[in-house]
């Protein structure tokens, strides 16, 4: 499996929760928006610094956490 290079964990950013590329948007926010039936295009309009691959990796990270598979992530 490939590295989730867009997911970062930094104790100084959002209390160490998994974020997208060191920005102050957590994986949880993205997953919550998807769960609330927001389309990817709408999420990118709400957060214009996000890219489609950020959303994909947020979902992959959430799936990994729920399945407890080992996936390397980038540490900020």
Could you give a quick summary of the protein structure above?
The protein is of the alpha+beta class and 76 residues long.
How would the blueprint of this fold be written?
Elements (H helix, E strand, L loop, with lengths): L3 E6 L9 E2 L6 H9 L4 H7 L5 H16 L5 E3 L1
Parallel strand pairs: 1-3
Antiparallel strand pairs: 1-2
Helix pairs in contact: 1-3
Question: What this model shows, in words?
Answer:
By secondary structure, this protein is of the alpha+beta class. It is 42% helix and 14% strand. The protein has helices at 27-35, 40-46, 52-67, and strands spanning 4-9, 19-20, 73-75. A 3-stranded mixed beta sheet has the order 2-1-3. The two termini are 20 Å apart. 18% of the residues are buried.
